[in-house]
Amino acid sequence: MEKKAVKKTIIKKATTPKKVVTPKLVATAPVTPEIKYCRYVNKNIKISPRKLRLLANSIKKLSPTSVLVKLSLTNTKAARVLARAIETVVSVAKNNYNLSPESLQFDTIIVNEGLKIKRMDKSHGSHFARGTIVKRHSRLKIIVKGQVK
Question: For residues 70 and 47, what is the distance between their CA atoms, to the nearest angstrom?
């Protein structure tokens, strides 16, 4: 038995030179800054929603930083409640979401009715609502939007 010598031919692939990609001049759209939202919710504020809504509707179109100055000059409980809420939402937006305070704007301010505490009072029996005294509470929701620093 004869063994045939088998020749293995190895064919090497010719390496092709890598193509050099020249950068093309592409018109890029202007980069718009990223807009983020920050939310504040308080579901149990001991003030009538009507009193809070009167002041909340008047400040919707202003910026939060200018609102704080206006509220500091207003001597009502609603102003103190709103000022504390706006200070909170501005600081959360600044520290947690890296939003610049100058770019903040109100997206929504919603004042709804919260729970009611009712009690009977004999001394008001025939005057109003059959002697029922109603203590109203409010729900406040503030959403601000702003640009990332």
Answer: 20
Largest CA distance in the chain: 129
Number of domains in the chain: 1
User: Does the residue 117 lie in any domain?
Assistant: no
* CB-CB contact of 122 with 132 (8 Å): no
% of the chain beyond a pLDDT of 90: 65
Give pLDDT tens digits for 53-65. Answer: 999 999 999 999 9
Cβ pair 111, 138 in contact under 8 A: yes
Which residue range forms the structural domain that includes residue 86? Answer: 35-112+139-147
What secondary structure does DSSP assign to 48-97, as a single string? -HHHHHHHHHHHTTS-HHHHHHHHHT--SHHHHHHHHHHHHHHHHHHHHS
Within a domain: 95: yes
Tokens of 74: 């207003």
Question: Does any domain span residue 129?
Answer: no
**Mean pLDDT, the chain, integer:** 87
Query: What are the angstrom distances between the C-alpha of 130 and each of 34, 64, 122?
Result: 56, 43, 9
25 pLDDT tier (thresholds 50, 70, 90)? low
Q: What angle do CA 114, 63, 86 make, to 5 degrees?
A: 40
> Is the CB of residue 64 less than 8 Å from the CB of residue 106?
yes
